[in-house]
Design brief:
mainly beta, 5-stranded antiparallel sheet, 4-stranded antiparallel sheet, 2 helices, 35% strand
Length: 164
């Protein structure tokens, strides 16, 4: 199996996520799982990772299958841990490292909505991930997200795994 990217973020390929974008934009942020609210009027969507939530699994099946056929299978034959991550304007995700453990190989990010001031930082290096592209991310490295723009940043993510 090929080694996952070790330099943080690597562009993988173009991807047509238009159907997934239309689906996710139709879900009000109030319907998302919520993080702790500092103020009752302050919406802070949490990671959505339940496949039955608004048909999340069904809505993402085709994009996962398409990306696997386009070469992700070189990292492993299976996927797991599908997630939707929203970072609202002016919000961020604190620096952290994930330790997904074996059989994890690589995390795939597919930006659904973004803005020029939404960045993904890995070991202090800023990356702007664009809609219409899929990226490979090494989440074992220290990373964080900051959205200093005026619109939400939403990414679809999943892990590629190998049991060999």
């Amino acid at each position: 199996m090929e080694t996952p990217p070790c330099n943080g973020v690597q562009e993988f390929c173009e991807v047509d996520a238009s159907a997934l974008i239309t689906w996710v934009e139709a879900i009000p942020f109030e319907d998302w799982p919520q993080q702790h609210r500092v103020h009752p009027d302050h919406i802070r969507p949490a990671m959505a990772n339940v496949l039955s939530w608004h048909g999340f699994g069904r809505e993402t099946d085709s994009i996962v299958a398409s990306l696997m056929r386009r070469g992700l299978d070189r990292f492993g034959p299976s996927t797991n841990n599908r997630m939707l991550s929203v970072v609202m304007p002016g919000e961020g995700i604190e620096p952290h490292s994930d330790n997904p453990g074996p059989p994890w190989r690589v995390r795939v990010h597919v930006p659904l909505t973004t803005n020029d001031k939404a960045v993904f930082l890995v070991e202090g290096v800023a990356y702007h991930m664009e809609v219409g592209r899929a990226y490979l991310v090494n989440v074992r490295q220290r990373h964080e997200i900051q959205n200093d723009g005026l619109t939400p940043r939403i990414h679809f993510m999943f892990d590629v795994v190998s049991f060999d």
